[in-house]
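Subject: for your reference before the review

Hello V.,

The reviewers asked for a structural picture of the protein, and I figured it would be easier to keep everything in one thread rather than splitting it across files. Below is the amino acid sequence we used in the manuscript, unchanged from the supplementary table.
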Amino acid sequence: MRRKYVLAIAGIVILIGMFGVGKAFGQRAVGVGVCDWAEYTVLYSGNETLPPQLPPDSAQLKLTVEDISGTKITFDQLWWANGTEVEGINSVDVETGQGNGTSLFIAKNLNESDIIYTSPPPSGAFGLNFEGLTINETISRQYLGDDVEVNHLNLTESESSPEGNQTISINFYWYRATGITAEMSVSALYQRNYGNTTWLEWKLVVTALEVLPQRYSVGVKAGDWVAYGDVSFEWSSNDTDQEPPSQLNMSWTTMEVLDVQNSNVTARVDTILKNGTEDEFVGWVNVATGEGAMSMSFIPSNLSTGDRIPGRLTWPTMEPLKLFINGTVTRSYAGAYRKVNFVNITYPIVYGNTTYGASKISLYWDQKTGFLCEEIMSYEVSYSINSTNYYANMSIMGRMTATNLWQAVFTVQDGYAFNITMNSNSTISNFNFSGSSMHISFNVTGPMGKTGYCNVTIPKGLLQGSPWTVYLNGTEYTASCSITGNDTHTFIYIPYTCSTNTIKIEGTWAIPEFPSTIIMLAFMIATLLAAVVHKRKKGKLLETFSLC
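And here is what came back from the structure prediction:
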């Protein structure tokens, strides 16, 4: 009878007709992310010998999500038991149930009577066939000290024989919000007609969990764009058979968001190489999972130090790197100071068992939008062929210099402070304000021959024109511009053909400069007042503590 009992636990098969037909299923979604993990421990009690198919008491299990593709989760499964480790890579599709990890993960946010898997394999956990099985109930249950919503499945089967009665019950509890297992258990009761009653209870219960809240959100919308006008590329090698990748020798790149659907961002990248060749690429990324060819161009908005980046940076290692935000700093991009998240990566370049060098990568993303602001990458390798030593070194940098996500801000200060703001599809540099000459000037640089523009907003408290005069590269250009305004600001729109252009906007009145003699006089008065106050305080102290 013992053999029959063991086989019943290890290979119990539940028929569809015992549990009815569940509700029609809608779109399923994964509730975990790459690098999420859970740890479990085994609890065993009873007077029946534990079947060898079940891990022993106090055994531990750790599940770590390695990859997500659509509704398929690939995860690392590591068991510790009796001083032995057993590790393997498993997978499960939370929609169909296909894979060798069936039952450990299900779709998130299922409800009572929902079908668990749409087309599962014939044999899953404990040998169960999940075909047609549905969530029995959604309840509140305590795990890790918190009351959480879990989806519950119970399977119970009883059998009678001339030797006695046998009842086996299997329970699964999954976190509803994420679909990851919170607990699974097997209990068995065997009542012999002649002899003792035996029983066992085996549980796998979560003991630690890191599933980041599903707070990932898209920070961009269709029409948002950035341009990388500050780019550089360097290559050196003594190996004449090695040539630098021509597609990296860029002079200008523009990236524009075409569409946003849920967490999916579709964007177009237009690149102009230094040899004049132009290239266009349309790609996409799911910012919540990192799927897609534009994985590192967009990350979720408003991440903070220590947050995981759901990206798939694979080309340095051919395997996805697990990246976390190293820090948040303030840096200047496209004419404005922004809070940006950054990550620094150093990774060895290995082929076979030999290390040939190292690659270094630094990435900066705008914290509010998740748009890539800057990329700095370099590698150095050395190798030997037929006793000849070779090297190859490469570095590439791309930095955002223009965008419609925010305005470039130039602050004029001289005893006062005014902000002149600009929107442009060009790189703005060499800004200058002259109160005595009543003008502002700056350079705009863009890809040669392309149409450029700059929309300048000038506070009337700083500079006014009656009329205004606009110069392009020293030639009057006012007639080609659009000039409007309101009570507080003047708006000047300037179109041009891109190259490196110098723009000067000249007015007829400017705020008077703060004379240096007045500044010196104000400083002398402040110093004199401080001395008088100090003297009076000193006199009062002498009076208070005098020994006379």
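For the response letter, the relevant points are probably these. Residues 408-510 form a domain with the Jelly Rolls fold (CATH 2.60.120). The mean pLDDT is 85.

Happy to draft the paragraph if you're swamped.

O.
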